[in-house]
């Protein structure tokens, strides 16, 4: 087990030596997860990108931990030479979520940050394009937060057609329309 | 638009000509547009019914709302529909237009297409197979022969009701007045 994960362990040791407060976990071969303090993120990403050859930013995802009153951002980085995928996890305060932008490192980080800003409400300091991106004329709270009541919003704004409340079985209506009978599936199993 | 158009359209020859050359606006609003290439090409040939794609709304007869309709798209579709020239028909494609379909709990899609645009034919399915699409087109042709497909007149007469529904969902209303 230990000689297969040699490269991952090497990376773990280097990270622990340079960034003392980072907590690295090897999930399996080729997958590392790093928990980091939120203000250390740009130097850490710059270190991984320039010195450890993690040149590809795959995605930035946002998670809403409403029970722990925090937002979590996960930065997925990939290295072509080492073929290892690193997930850098950063926790933010839920009442005032702010983060530094990664635009100076990668141009396409701007797209992910704009989407996370619109859907979760996290502000990225230094990104000039934060604004209306996908939704048009949206005046409610950011919709991917877990305290946004989707079903109530939908029931307020849109109208339903009859037939959805009682969860009517559509097979019955169609069978009546074409004068057929629905086979009894429970009987056939026996 | 004058009222005589409705009476003239009751002419049988006019209906026969219209139903055999329906030009569909080439506008894929949702995921249903993926079923249009198989329908139009040689296996389930829809061109034998006179169907062909139209490039602009002024040249189209049928507006095909293929699939879910986000509020952002609805604003553009209303403008497109009002630019089409009578007689015009709307086909609601897929179960998202009927009662929300797969996106029933989405904050951004419209659940009942009937409230916002006058629909003549609904085609059920997610996505409907090309045979169902052709079935829907034949249904529309039947409605035209029987003199029952007057969606555009219904829209004109009940414009206030449609506008009220549309404005409830679309918040930033900056559109030209409907004067067709």
Structure report:
- The complex is a heterodimer of chains A (190) and B (180).
- Chain A has 190 residues and is of the alpha/beta class.
- Chain A has a single domain (6-139), classed as NADH:ubiquinone oxidoreductase Nqo5 subunit (Beta Polymerase, domain 2).
- Chain A is 29% helix and 25% strand.
- Chain A contains six helices and seven strands, in the order H-E-E-H-E-E-E-E-H-E-H-H-H.
- Chain A has helices spanning 6-18, 41-50, 109-120, 150-157, 170-177, 185-189; strands at residues 23-28, 31-36, 56-65, 70-79, 84-93, 98-100, 123-125.
- Chain A has a five-stranded mixed sheet with strand order 1-2-5-4-3.
- In chain A, a hairpin with a 4-residue loop joins strand 4 and strand 5.
- Chain B has one domain: Rossmann fold (3-Layer(aba) Sandwich), CATH 3.40.50.12280.
- In chain B, helix 2 (12-19) runs antiparallel to helix 6.
- The mean pLDDT of chain B is 87.
- The chains are: A alpha/beta (190), B alpha/beta (180).
- The A-B interface holds A 135-137, 139, 143, 148, 150-151, 153-154, 157-161, 163-164 and B 71-72, 75, 98-100, 104-108, 110-112, 114-115, 168-172.
């Amino acid at each position: 087990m230990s000689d297969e994960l040699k490269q991952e362990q090497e990376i773990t040791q280097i990270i622990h030596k340079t960034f003392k407060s980072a907590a690295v976990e090897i999930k399996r071969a080729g997958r590392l997860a790093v928990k980091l303090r939120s203000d250390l993120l740009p130097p850490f990403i710059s270190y991984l990108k320039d010195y450890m050859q993690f040149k590809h930013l795959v995605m930035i995802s946002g998670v809403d931990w409403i029970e722990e009153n925090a937002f979590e951002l996960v930065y997925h980085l990939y290295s072509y030479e080492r073929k290892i995928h690193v997930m850098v996890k950063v926790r933010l305060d839920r009442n005032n979520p702010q983060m530094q932008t990664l635009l100076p490192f990668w141009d396409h980080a701007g797209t992910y940050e704009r989407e996370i800003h619109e859907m979760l409400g996290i502000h990225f300091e230094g990104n000039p394009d934060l604004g209306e991106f996908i939704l048009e004329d949206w005046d409610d709270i950011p919709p991917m937060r877990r305290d946004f009541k989707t079903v109530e919003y939908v029931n307020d704004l849109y109208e339903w057609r009859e037939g959805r409340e009682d969860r009517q079985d559509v097979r019955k209506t169609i069978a009546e329309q074409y004068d057929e009978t629905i086979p009894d599936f429970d009987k056939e199993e026996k | 638009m004058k009222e005589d158009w409705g009476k003239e359209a009751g002419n049988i020859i006019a209906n026969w000509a219209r139903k055999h050359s329906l030009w569909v606006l080439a506008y894929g609003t949702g995921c249903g547009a993926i079923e249009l290439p198989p329908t139009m090409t040689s296996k389930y040939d829809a061109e034998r019914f006179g169907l062909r794609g139209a490039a602009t709304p002024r040249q189209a007869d049928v507006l095909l709302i293929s699939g879910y309709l986000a509020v952002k798209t609805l604003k553009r579709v209303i403008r497109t529909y009002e630019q089409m020239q009578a007689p015009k028909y709307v086909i609601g494609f897929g179960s998202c237009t009927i009662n929300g379909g797969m996106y029933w709990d989405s904050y951004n899609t419209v659940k009942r297409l009937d409230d916002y645009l006058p629909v003549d034919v609904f085609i059920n399915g997610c996505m409907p197979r090309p045979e169902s699409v052709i079935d829907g087109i034949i249904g529309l042709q039947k409605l035209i022969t029987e003199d029952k497909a007057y969606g555009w007149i219904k829209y004109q007469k009940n414009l206030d009701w449609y506008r009220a529904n549309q404005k409830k969902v679309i918040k930033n209303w900056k559109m030209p007045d409907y004067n067709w």
